[in-house]
Amino acid sequence: MNIMLIYGGKSGEHEISLVSASAIARNVDARHAIFLVGITKSGRWFLQEDSELFRIRADQTAHFEISEKAENEMFVIPGGGKTGAFCTRSGKKIATDVVFPVLHGTNGEDGTVQGLFEIALVPYVGCSVGASAWTMDKEKTKSLLAHAGIPVVPGVCVRKSDFLSKEKLYSIIKSAEDDFGYPMFVKPCSAGSSNGAQKTFNRTELDSALLGAFEWDCKVLVEKAIDAREIECSVTGNPTTADGTSAAETLCAYVPGEIAPSHGFYDYDAKYNDPKGASLLIPANLPEKRLSEVLALAKKAYAALDLSGLSRVDFFIDRKTETLFLNEINTLPGFTQISMFPKMCESAGLSFTNLIERLLEEAILRAESAQKLRTSR
Questions:
Q1: Nearest to 184 by CA among 173, 169, 195
Q2: Are 332 and 108 in contact, with CB atoms under 8 Å apart?
Q3: Is the C-alpha dihedral spanning 176, 179, 184, 186 positive or negative?
């Protein structure tokens, strides 16, 4: 099988993508051929030399770098399919059975690149265009989950246009203060890895945090800050098309884990820069009944949002009331050495290599199912 591994991207999570993709490249079954495509921070695509894969596999601490040779610049051809969708500037075509887009955040897990692969007629790992788009938007995710009867953290959305009216903006902020009280979290609606997220303790901090969050997105979520335990659950499968014949499509939730951050909250530094930023506990230290509840709710949310391939479903458990909330869903979670998604799967008996195999198989099955659908009379 020819696998195209795509990483980098025009995103605040560019560097994390390089690390995640490196880990995946080291764990792909040796039977498969891998082609590497790096996307620069400006959004240009470049086919990488085979030597880059050898370098990564020879050094467990290394991560991908992106070479920008003009003759290797990549182009995607609509309708090209597995044999003609990808072509370099020099005219070299890259036959591709399936794409694994290890692209976190903007232009990677928000439905944009998924749409490109759909138009190019190539299978790809992960959620569909629509599912990727609405789960990237935290406000829309909350609305859909609440509609499905799944408990979410109380919050309110502030739009950049709200700044046109001081009265309207003041009304939104005042309502948040009255309903939630301080502290409150401020986070961009469509940014990942806690980019632009801040915990605020008064109006001055809230105003500053809003301005900072609007540097990342045009919509910002203001949420009640909950003194919570952070529980995560890996989910795979495709409940929309599963017919019981393939384990890759079967909806499966794995052993939940717990994040115990040493920082004020699980911010970017705690996730990626500080080796002591958090303790990762697998399984989470929860009673069997609560573990079962997390697993059931994770699968319910995954199915309700028409997710496919993989997702990490994140929960809060209020330390005071023991109330369980679904915090957010990450449709392309990290695959770094300290990332929870592959660790939780491995704890449940699914090795990193077998996890990748499952994701590749599901991607191809989903593409085959879509090809059988009618598109004209």
A1: 173
A2: yes
A3: negative
